[in-house]
Amino acid sequence: MPQARHTTLVPEQSEFAESRAAEKAESARRSALAARAVASYSLDADDCVVLLAMLGLDAAAGRAAGPD
Q: For residues 42 and 6, which has the higher predicted lDDT (pLDDT)?
């Protein structure tokens, strides 16, 4: 009869996972701020869309960032 596998993260793996999660959150925050900066300097909506696309930024991320 097969035994259920019980996996436990060792401290190094846990720290690595926490570090990666923190890095991902910081990256999302910076992308959101960048998208907001692009939007604030755009001439109009079409200009904003083009600039965001060129930079690989997501307009929805900028909206999710909320006010500074």
A: 42
If you write DSSP's letter for every residue of 1-40 in order, what string do you get?
-PPPP-----HHHHHHHHHHHHHHHHHHHHHHHHHHHHHH
Query: Rounded to whole angstroms, how far apart are CA atoms 55 and 34?
Result: 9
Q: How far is CA 47 from the centre of its chain?
A: 23
Write phi, then psi, for 2 (nearest 5 degrees). Answer: -70, 145
- The per-residue pLDDT for range 33-62, each reduced to its tens digit, is 999 999 999 999 999 999 999 999 988 877
Q: How far apart are CA 60 and CA 39, in angstroms?
A: 11
Helix (H) / strand (E) containing 42: none
